[in-house]
Amino acid sequence: xxxxxxxxxxxxxxxxxxxxxxxxxxxxxxxxxxxxxxxxxxxxxxxxxxxxxxxxxxxxxxxxxxxxxxxxxxxxxxxxxxxxxxxxxxxxxxxxxxxxxxxxxxxxxxxxxxxxxxxxxxxxxxxxxxxxxxxxxxxxxxxxxxxxxxxxxxxxxxxxxxxxxxxxxxxxxxxxxxxxxxxxx
Length: 185
Known about the structure:
With 185 residues, the protein is of the alpha/beta class. It has one domain: Nucleotidyltransferase, domain 5 (2-Layer Sandwich). The protein contains five helices and five strands. The protein has helices spanning 6-21, 81-105, 121-128, 140-151, 168-179, and strands spanning 37-44, 55-62, 65-73, 114-118, 155-159. It has a five-stranded mixed sheet with strand order 3-2-1-4-5, with helices on both faces. Strand 2 and strand 3 form a beta hairpin. Helix 2 crosses helix 4 (140-151).
């Protein structure tokens, strides 16, 4: 929004054309929806066979309604699953911070902290007790960022079992997208 380009306008027009041609389709937000944000974060460590980059996936719910999601290959190669999860959590925390700004601008009173769920116990323990030493130096910036958001009261990290992680579908979609070019239609 700070530097709009022609590609942004074309994307907006594409969305508007889609909405115009699909009036019966849409997102349903019930009147009696709870006013809270919940985020589910997931990762797939070193899933790209050619680059060994990991995949971040997350989804954010406003009450029971999905309002934000993302699936993207990470820009760097992670040396551990904890590092991969921290990068995913940093992405989720940035999105939650932005949603907080938007909700404040719309005068929505959404209580803090936002529940953020991940399935990596070591990441949660590191966020609760960030003892920075040689093994965490390569993820120190993300550690400081996540810890700052916890201290500021924006997020609270909770464990979710692997069988209940909702964001898993987004890492699998991204992995599928990585392999689709291998199979011509």
